[in-house]
Design brief:
Layout lengths: L5 H7 L14 H11 L11 E6 L2 H10 L4 H4 L3 E7 L4 H18 L6 H18 L5 H14 L10 H25 L3 E5 L4 H8 L6 E2 L2 E5 L15 H4 L4
Antiparallel strand pairs: 1-2, 2-4, 2-5, 3-5
Helix pairs in contact: 1-8, 2-8, 3-9, 5-6
This protein binds flavin mononucleotide.
Amino acid sequence: MTEKTVSEAIAYRRSVRVYDPTKSIDTAVVKQCVQQATIAPTSSNLQLWEFYHVTDPSAKAKIAEACFNQAAAKTALQFVIPVVRKDLWKSRVKANLAFLNAQFEAQGKRDSKREKMATNYYTKIIPTLYTDYFGILGFFKGIFAYITGLSKPMYRQVSASDLKVVAHKSTALAAQNFMISMAAHGYDTCPMEGFDSKRVKDILGLPKGAMINMIISCGIRGEGGIYGPQFRVPFNDVYFEK
Ligand SMILES: Cc1cc2nc3c(=O)[nH]c(=O)nc-3n(C[C@H](O)[C@H](O)[C@H](O)COP(=O)(O)O)c2cc1C
């Protein structure tokens, strides 16, 4: 089957609540769609995410139960669970620095202005932003940003909860990449936030710092699997040209 174009895939994607039990999906294709997900843009290229692809029947049943056995979960053939790993920021900084150093080395641009700026970004700015102790430092960083912002433009998303939003935002972009890639193959999905996050973390064996971004059920749309026509508020209510 030829893949759909981006516009076709966007139009095809619907939240499917009932999957056809007689139609299977190829695990390798789903994995390839997860790979497409990881090409999504991410704040500071920190890639504070992981993706759990659940295909094992007993794990699937546990995930469905943690999703309150809602239809989209109960009839799912597989799950893909994007997880926010803000707690991995130090290792992601290291990976970025290693990559950038290799790039600058290969281009003979070590000690260039760009290299110094990039190194400064990952060794000073990012650690200042991400280092926190139970939200206390974030609180003071917020006050600093507010005072500095009185006289000049200032980055203000510095509190612990702001950084959570930053990490979830990037992970959700990856989730959308995944769902569009699935649609391009004629595969269906349903993003869900109706779940018990603690139970899901336990099932996946995740540490306390990990956060479930959403749970995406996967399969092929079954009869009555799409609950109705797609509803959106009028475009002119949400589109503003300035
Ligand atoms: C973050 C997020 C969480 C959602 N959670 C659920 C959910 O728990 N259960 C469900 O059936 N649908 C869930 N949905 C699907 C929405 O209800 C659906 O996207 C919306 O009704 C628009 O329909 P469409 O996706 O078919 O265009 C969720 C969607 C998003 C983006």
